[in-house]
Write a structure and sequence with these properties.
Blueprint: E1 3-6, E2 9-14, E3 24-28, H1 31-47, H2 60-70, H3 78-91, H4 102-112, H5 118-137, H6 165-176, H7 183-193, H8 197-201, E4 208-211, E5 214-219, E6 228-231, H9 234-239, H10 252-261, H11 274-285, H12 290-297, H13 302-305, H14 318-321
Antiparallel strand pairs: 1-2, 2-3, 4-5, 5-6
Helix pairs in contact: 2-3, 2-5, 7-11
């Protein structure tokens, strides 16, 4: 019997969890209270089996170390993600991870929003939520993700600015005047292939290929970690240095300085990325295919590429031509 009467009191003594010796004991004045408590514990053992595990007292900082060991170091920029998680951990006062609640994190986020933008807050949430999900996936923690229920903040989608042909010419002329010997050709590679500026100055000689009358660039160190190949013109191929090893140094700062010297105004956070937006926008305006663009840019999801679909010449006209009443008398 799990409920015993001793000296006019009722004792609950049960082990409700399978594969564990966790024992729960409690004393009640009436039998009905004892029965209700026992039923509650047995029901909880069915719906929350992780409560039967040995209490996980590891702090968030310890989980971050495990996450980095098992997964984090495989990311494209592991040091940046690790530093961000450590900063979040410090701001949360390094709690016992299993006791972190959605309310705790929402209160922390509310304070942070006075200093950061909602998009940054969403990136932080995705990062720490991903930490818990990954450790659950590899069976390192036995309890549910404590912040799984928190929703991302709705953020107004920012306008994707691109350069006109006139602005491209102005920019390239300014880049020629730069003291950085690499910035002009790096920018031209970005405008010709839609690559990120970091992918351009990360190229090695082995990534630039000539095969007969065809020329192409293999981008290897990409954000998605997936290799992609983009054809280039013979003229651009001939401009790329033929030395061995790394071809360029990081010239992001030189590019930003050149932009500031022109009258080109860009939204915050879209400086060097404007080259990628410019390629994609002109590609679609010139009649390019959205699926081909997805492959060139290396987007994992077509939704990312669809941001450029409205640049297609017949994007809206198809609504008239293809609607179900178009051929009706």
């Amino acid at each position: 019997m799990s409920i015993k009467k001793i000296d006019n009191k009722f004792y609950v003594d049960i082990r409700p969890y399978e594969n564990t010796n966790k024992r729960i004991r409690k004393t009640f004045i009436t039998k009905s209270e004892a029965v209700r408590f026992q039923n509650h514990i047995l029901a909880e053992a069915q719906t929350k089996p992780w409560n039967g595990e040995k209490e996980d007292k590891r702090r968030l900082s310890q989980l971050i170390e495990k996450w980095y060991e098992f997964h984090g170091q495989t990311l494209a920029v592991p040091e940046k993600s690790l530093a961000k998680l450590k900063a979040i951990c410090e701001d949360l006062n390094d709690p016992i991870a299993a006791k972190l609640t959605a309310t705790d994190y929402i209160e922390y986020r509310g304070k942070r929003l006075k200093k950061i933008k909602p998009k940054t807050a969403n990136n932080d949430l995705n990062l720490i939520r991903g930490l818990f999900n990954k450790l659950i996936e590899i069976d390192n923690i036995k309890y549910p993700n404590p912040i799984a229920s928190i929703k991302l903040i709705k953020v107004q989608e920012t306008e994707l600015v691109f350069l006109s042909e006139q602005e491209i010419n102005i920019l390239l002329e300014e880049l020629k005047l730069s003291t950085n010997p690499h910035v002009n050709i790096v920018a031209r590679i970005c405008l010709s292939t839609g690559c990120r500026i970091s992918e351009s100055f990360g190229l090695k000689r082995t990534n630039v290929i000539k095969s007969g009358n065809e020329f192409r660039i293999n981008f290897v160190n990409t954000k998605s970690k997936k290799r992609r190949t983009v054809p280039i013109s013979e003229n651009l191929y001939n401009e790329i240095p033929k030395k061995s090893g790394a071809l360029f140094a990081d010239c992001r700062k030189a590019f930003e300085r050149a932009i500031r010297k022109t009258e080109i105004v860009l939204p915050e956070g879209q400086c060097s990325h404007v080259l990628r937006h410019t390629f994609a926008s002109h590609f679609m305006m010139n009649g390019g295919n959205i699926i081909v663009l997805q492959r060139i840019l290396g987007h994992a999801k077509i939704e990312e590429t669809m941001r450029y679909a409205h640049f297609a010449p017949n994007h809206l006209e198809d609504a008239i031509r293809l609607n179900p009443l178009a051929n009706c008398p």
